[in-house]
Amino acid sequence: MLGLPPSWYKDPSYRSRIVREPRAVLAEFGLELGDDVAIRVFDSSSEVRYMVLPMRPAGTDGLSEEELAALVTRDSMVGVAEAAAP
Questions:
Q1: Residue that wins the pLDDT comparison between 4 and 22
Q2: Which of 10, 16, 37, 84 gives 33 a disulfide partner, CB atoms 3.0 to 4.6 angstroms apart?
């Protein structure tokens, strides 16, 4: 949908580190999540795929599907950023 994943996303060192210390890795991308946000890390394979559904930004209740889709970025789809604010 959004094209090929970034090269670092497939890098073995990134993949192993995101499992060990997800909050630290996400913080390096600029994504600070509160302690009340649960982080679950799943690894995809050729047989299993996961979809990251970015959290809906506050204040978007009245937006159309097209307007919401415009807030989604590649980084929010791979889980290292939140969807953009309207």
A1: 22
A2: 37
